[in-house]
Amino acid sequence: MVEFKAALTNEVEKLYKRKKVLVALTISLIFIIIGQLSMVVLRSGFGLRGVSSMDFPILVLSVVVNTILPLFTALVTIESFSGEFSQNTMKIALTRPISRLMFYSAKLTAIMLFILSNLLFVMIFSILAGCLFNANSFTLASLFKILLSYAVTLVPMVILSIIIAFFTMIIRSGIGVFFLSIFVFVTLKGLGILFYRYAGVFITSMMSWYTLFLMETIPTFKIFLQFMMMLSYAIIFFTAGYYLFDKKEF
């Protein structure tokens, strides 16, 4: 565990120094500001009610989880693997006394922490923005639903990073992995619309997993089925990705 902790610390430091993390947080903040200003304009200029302070963070989550969060998750994952492949820095890291399994896991854990920090950032600032303009609608029950929604969103996003990490083992070029990820994401989105009855098996449909927790009557069985589906994706792609990573010669 000492080796894993050291590798994880190193990976987190490398992510922290990359500009993509700052750009992701900046764009997320811009989304929140623009979204809240739009609500204010609609409410004051057109007499529309807009959304409450507790509905606004969920609205922001629905936008972020289908746009900038998958995009930057892909970019950070590609940079962590393909970027180091192209710069030949992976070989140096593997000279340390650590197994490839721990090293591979440390990279994915660092990416998970990036996703978590992004979600926390968006959640905190969207709650503050919502309460700033409509504090009367604040309730503890709504706050709990927001916390739960953002927490469960971490699961499909982490699985997305595991799948993209698998792609980096197949294609060495970071640009190639990026366009492959976009192609797969858009294709699965389209297939989910065309074959809506089977949309539940596509990882893209699981991005909105949090919506199941917002229903008046929570569909426990459906949540369990989707969780097991995501767990299956995680096991398959993590195992396949690590197998290819372990066989690579640097």
List keywords for this structure.
250 residues, mainly alpha, 9 helices, globular
Mean pLDDT: 80
User: Rounded to an integer, what's the Rg over CA atoms?
Assistant: 20 Å
Element-level helix/strand string: HHHHHHHHH
Total number of helices: 9
How can the largest sheet be summarized?
Answer: none
Strand content: under 5%
Total strands:
0
Shape designation: globular
Termini distance? Answer: 24 Å
Poorly predicted runs of 5 or more residues: 45-50
- The class by helix and strand makeup works out as mainly alpha
Helix content: over 70%
Describe the structure.
With 250 residues, the protein is an all-alpha fold. The chain contains nine helices and no strands. Helix 1 crosses helix 6.
Secondary structure blueprint with pairings:
Elements lengths: L1 H16 L1 H27 L10 H9 L3 H20 L2 H4 L6 H34 L6 H31 L3 H21 L25 H28 L3
Helix pairs in contact: 1-6, 2-4, 2-6, 3-6, 4-6, 4-7, 4-8, 6-7, 7-9
How would you summarize what this structure contains?
Helix content is 76%, strand content 0%. It has helices at residues 2-17, 19-45, 56-64, 68-87, 90-93, 100-133, 140-170, 174-194, 220-247. With 250 residues, it is mostly helical.
